[in-house]
Amino acid sequence: MKATAKANTNIALIKYWGKRDENLFLPMNSSISITLDKFYTITTVEFKEKLDSDIFILNKNIESNSERDKVSRFLDRIRKRTGTNLHAEIISENKVPTAAGFASSASGFAALAAAASKSLNLDLDKKDISILARQGSGSASRSIYGGFVEWQKGIQKDGQDSFAKPLLSEKDWNISILSVVVASKEKNVSSREGMKRTIETSPFYSGWLSTVEKDLVMVREAINAQDFERLGEVVEGNALKMHATMLGAEPPVLYWQSGTMEVIHYIQSLRLSGIPVYLTIDAGPNVKVLCLPTDEKRIYESLLSLPSVKEVITCHPGEGITYL
Ligand code: DP6
């Protein structure tokens, strides 16, 4: 009745932006990501007799708010499936600095899905864990595998064909991902709210959907060929297109700060000087820079010298879920 799992977070190369089913977390488009080696969640789940409700302890704090409710709602799906009405104690250690702008929901729900299903002896394979993790947070479906991963959107109504698949192991291709933290004051709109508003109100959303398939084909090919420049060009274009689509929403969903713009211009100028370096941005102001390991050190140092850059954290492709 007790199990512990570890999952790393991931960064999307081709973005998931928009759901076709909010309850089952079914996406409008497929997405591709890299699982990272630095930021992770370790979660222990123990189903116990005599508990009146779930207890969620995150980084040693007892959570009694919406975070606890999200975890409980997720466990309800597993309780329904197994027929148990036991409650659980969930102890999570989250090593995803929120300031670094990585969504902790990806590693959080991947670790929770793996630990909870194992603690109830569900004996799920990775595909089924991906389907389960997806129902906590869409991007969590991809953190089940290491390296380069695709979450195929699927077409079925029940979501049984909407899960992640590994494209290339972390051992086969090493690239560098620098997480650039910029100064920011404003509170972000959550991805969940931002994508809903974009689908409902942005006239550009149909343009996003009509080109994302082509981006997916090009990124799969670039990963297969380990062609960094081809990968970087499509990845940067895809991220900028997602943000342009959000800007068309009413009211606009704007995640960028002045520091975001400073880093974008700087990376583009480095590229003009002949260095293969690209960027991507999620639902926040921070920029993730992609470069080759041979250029990692000088780019890291030069980014730190920009006035609006507060911190740079270097990551590489990492492994999928493990049980401890
Ligand atoms: C911009 O997976 O956090 O990072 O499914 O509502 O929990 P929910 O959203 P979430 O959205 C991630 C959005 C993104 C792009 C991506 O990771 O693909």
From TrEMBL:
Keywords linked to the UniProt accession: ATP-binding, Lipid biosynthesis, Lipid metabolism, Lyase, Nucleotide-binding
Lyase keyword on record: yes
EC code(s) of this entry: 4.1.1.33
Any one GO cellular component localisation term in the record: cytosol
Diphosphomevalonate decarboxylase-like N-terminal domain sequence ranges: 7-164
Coiled coil: none
Enzyme class: lyase
One of the GO BP terms on file: isopentenyl diphosphate biosynthetic process, mevalonate pathway
GO molecular function: ATP binding; diphosphomevalonate decarboxylase activity
InterPro entries referenced in this protein's UniProt entry, alphabetically: GHMP_kinase_C_sf, Mev_decarb, Mev_diP_decarb, MVD-like_N, Mvd1_C, Ribosomal_Su5_D2-typ_SF, Ribsml_uS5_D2-typ_fold_subgr
SUPFAM superfamilies from the UniProt entry: GHMP Kinase, C-terminal domain, Ribosomal protein S5 domain 2-like
Sequence ranges assigned to domain Mvd1 C-terminal in this UniProt record: 178-305
Similarity annotation: Belongs to the diphosphomevalonate decarboxylase family.
Protein name in the entry: diphosphomevalonate decarboxylase
Originating species: Anaeromonas frigoriresistens
